[in-house]
Amino acid sequence: VTNGGKTTLAEKLKKMLPNCDIISQDDFFKPESEVETDERGFKLYDVLDALYMDEMVKSIRNWMKSPTRSGVVTQEPQNTCDNLKDTEDVYILIVEGFLLYNYEPLNELWSRRYFLTLPYEECKRRRSTRVYQPADTPGYFDGHVWPMYLKYKNELEENASNIVYLDGTKSQEELLSCVYSDIIQELKKLRE
After folding, report:
1. 20 to 30 Å CA-CA from 168: which of 96, 115, 128, 138?
2. Which residues of 38-63 are buried (b: 16+ CB within 10 A; e: fewer)?
3. What is the CATH number assigned to the segment(s) 6-66+90-190?
4. For residues 156 and 102, is the Cβ–Cβ distance under 8 A?
5. d(CA 189, CA 192)
6. Using one digit for the tens of pLDDT, what is the confidence trace for 25-63?
7. What does pTM read for this prediction?
8. Could you report the per-residue pLDDT of 16-27, keeping only the tens digit for each?
């Protein structure tokens, strides 16, 4: 969901996990001139066609081939604990975005999937506090953003599995603790 805390969560996890890097879907938006406009004059940014998804897949695959040459700085995580011992040879890529699980070529790549949700009113409130380039036009949230979120969320619920749904109204600390604990469990499985 837009403004659900995806980027914030990813950045906090990166600081806590060893050998961790992030690829953000926002970095793959097409220029405004290439984004379609509907009959109401809304730029259709909340659809897969507004993104260079093939380039995103290529970036992820390149990282997977050679994570040590990806620019990841190998450093001690801020919150070192016994849970992270023997993980120096593990590399973690966090891919964050709003249409990740609806793009079939990506679905074979995920080890874990998290999906942040927000109720309509909270999402609209948060969106209204952000400045976008280009700026949201009047009615854009209700006319395009929220309907596209619902459409893709419904598709996701019908077609995808093994997704951990997270309540975006919870505190950043609660969300971070939940996902971090889950990742630690996955790392433990790798060591077994």
Report:
1. 138
2. eeeebbebbeeebbebeebeebbeeb
3. 3.40.50.300
4. yes
5. 5
6. 999 999 999 999 999 999 999 999 999 999 999 999 999
7. 0.87
8. 998 899 999 999
